[in-house]
Backbone:
C-alpha cells in the first residue's frame, strides 16, 4: 500500500513539473500587437543569448532626439541557430535597423520580425514564429 501511495505521489509530482513550463509560456499575441509593425533604428546596448527567448536592448532616438531604450524579444535559441545566428551575430555599439511588432500596452518593447545587420545580411523572423535565414536586401 505504501509503495502505491509513493508511486502515485511521484507520478503526480512529475506531472506538475511538466505543467509549469507549459503554463509559463505565453502567447505572443497577448503581449504584442501582431497586426502592427514599426521600424526602429538604434544602437545595440545589450544582447542576451538566453532561453526561452533571446533579447536585444537597443537605444533609439525619436523624432525629437530623445533616446528611448527598447527591449526586443527574439525566437528561441534553437530557431536562431537554425538560421545561422549566434551569440556573436550582434555586437554592442553597432547600429541596427529592425522591424518589430510593438508591445500592446505601449512600453518600449517589441517582437522581432526583421533584423538588418550593418553588413547587409537580413534575418526574417515573422510568419508565425518561423525563421528564414537572410538574403541581402
Residues:
Amino acid at each position: 500500500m505504501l509503495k502505491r501511495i509513493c508511486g502515485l505521489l511521484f507520478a503526480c509530482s512529475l506531472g506538475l513539473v511538466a505543467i509549469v513550463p507549459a503554463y509559463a509560456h505565453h502567447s505572443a499575441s497577448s503581449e504584442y500587437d501582431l497586426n502592427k509593425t514599426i521600424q526602429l533604428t538604434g544602437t545595440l546596448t545589450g544582447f542576451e543569448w538566453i532561453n526561452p527567448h533571446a533579447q536585444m536592448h537597443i537605444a533609439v532616438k525619436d523624432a525629437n532626439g530623445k533616446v528611448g531604450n527598447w527591449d526586443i524579444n527574439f525566437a528561441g535559441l534553437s530557431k536562431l541557430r537554425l538560421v545561422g545566428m549566434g551569440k556573436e551575430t550582434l555586437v554592442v555599439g553597432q547600429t541596427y535597423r529592425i522591424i518589430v511588432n510593438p508591445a500592446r500596452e505601449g512600453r518600449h518593447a517589441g517582437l522581432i520580425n526583421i533584423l538588418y545587420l550593418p553588413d547587409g545580411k537580413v534575418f526574417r523572423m515573422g510568419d508565425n514564429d518561423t525563421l528564414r535565414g537572410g538574403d541581402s536586401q
